[in-house]
Structure formats: structure tokens, C-alpha cells
Amino acid sequence: MPDISVVMITKNAERKLEQCLASLSSFSEVIIYDNGSTDSTLEIAARFANVKVFEGEFFGFGETKKHASALASHDWIFSLDADEVVSAELAKELQHINLDKQTCYQVRRDNYYRGKLIQCCGWYPEYIVRLYNRTQTNFSHAKVHEKVETKGLKVEKLGAPIEHYSFDSVADFLVKIQSYSEIYANDMQGKKHVSIVAGVGRGLFAFIKSYFFRKGIFCGFEGFVIAFFHGLGTTVKYLKLHEKNNPKP
Q1: Cys-Cys link to 188, which of 42, 169, 192, 223 (CB 3.0-4.6 A)?
Q2: How many Å is the maximal CA-CA distance in the chain?
């Protein structure tokens, strides 16, 4: 494996962490930056000899991932989430890659819900930059929906995927909506104003777009649930923002 450090941030990530870390055995260094886990996350991480654990504050997703990348020994950073698994094909591809500092590398992320590969609702195909040289670029400052900045750099797609197991149940969607909407509303308070009607309308459009335009209707129960929570998540974040912009007297 070239000199690549895998970097991830965690908080109560026990659900898929062992499977995730097991897929990283060919990497010499895996950096975990933990933000106060109270489950078995740290215990699981301690079982893997190539994992280094750091603990600290959460600054929002973009800033926290930038901070975590600074803890790595290598300049080449492979950013991974704790509910993602590097496929054997991708690990093999990375072992033979000829890295170019002026290039960021996209990986196809195969998204699963209830163990089923989802090929609708805008979830497939999804390409996301995950491998970059920190001397050339890093994550944006965004509190949510952060991404590696690629302006002025080449972007190249890798062939093999990572497997993303973010949702096993309706409860998982609810937890993520609560977390992300709170971060969004706190970040945008006073900067953006959306009426109640507009917030509900945007949520309704998000559902229609996901369910009909992006073919969730053809994916059975899973397609409906994903589209429903796309819409609900959009509505909740705007209602929370409206609430924060209009506090009780």
C-alpha cells in the first residue's frame, strides 16, 4: 500500500465500525478522531493494531475532518466514515495506484438500506472525492454536507467502490435527521430566513423529486422510506431554522 493514511471521525459508531476497520487491514495507519463516544467505539478501535485514536471536540463536519487529517503521518489522506467498508477490489486498486499530487480521486459509494443496494432516489451512482493530498487541498469549512475542495485540481474516478451502510432501520433515519438538522439550523441562524410555508414546500418537493423523478417509486418499501425521509429531513431543518430565527418572547 502506498503511504496513505485512512482518516475518520467517530461518535458512537459501534454499529459498523468493526466491519469498517477489518476492511482496512492493508493500510499501515488508520486515524480515528473521536468526539465523545459513550458506546463501545473506542473498545472496538483498540482491537486493531494499525488504528491510532485521538479524542477531541467536534467543530462541525468540515472543520473536524480537516483537524483529523492533520493528525495523520502521511500527506495522502483517504477519508472514510465509520459506516463505510472498503471493498477488497478497492483495497487492491489502491495498492497499485500511481498517485499524482495535483489529482483528487473519486470513489463510487454503493449505498445500502436494510442490507439492500439502493439504485434509486439519487443514491446510485454516487461518486465522492475521498482520496486527496493534504498539501494541496482539504475539506471545506461546511458544518454539514462538507466536501473536499477540488478547484484547480484534476479529479479522477477510481474503479472499485466503498460500501455504505448508513441506515438499517427507520430509527436510523430519525437519528440522522435530528443530528444534521440541528447542526444546520445552528449554523444558519440569522444568516438565512425561510418561512414555514417555504420550508414545508421544499420538503414536499424533495419527496416528489426523490420518489418520482429519481425513481424511488420503483424501489418498493425502501424507495418510499428514503424519499419520505428526504422530504421530512428538508422540512425539519427549515422549521428548526425558523424556530431559532424567531425565539419565543
Answers
A1: 192
A2: 62
What integer pLDDT is reported at residue 2 of this predicted model?
87
Shortest CA distance to 29 belongs to which of 53, 5, 55? Answer: 5
Q: Are 109 and 164 in contact (CB under 8 A)?
A: yes
Cell digits of residue 190: 440569522
Q: Quick one: cell of 88?
A: 477488497
- How many H helices and E strands in the chain? 7, 9
- What does the alpha-carbon distance between residue 227 and residue 141 come to, in Å, rounded to a whole number? 28
Q: Which positions ≥6 away from 160 have C-beta within 8 Å?
A: 87, 89, 90, 92, 93, 107, 108
pTM: 0.94
What does residue 9 show for φ and ψ, rounded to 5 degrees? -110, 145
Find, among 150, 2, 17, the residue nearest to 80 by Cα: 17
Question: In the chain, where are the structural domains located?
Answer: 4-164, 170-245
Q: What is the DSSP string of 143-210?
A: SSS--B--TTSEEEEEEEEEEEEEESSHHHHHHHHHHHHHHHHHHHTTT----HHHHHHHHHHHHHII
Confidence of residue 248 (pLDDT cuts 50, 70, 90): confident
Q: Give tens-digit pLDDT for 166-214.
A: 999 999 999 999 999 999 999 999 999 999 999 999 999 999 999 999 9
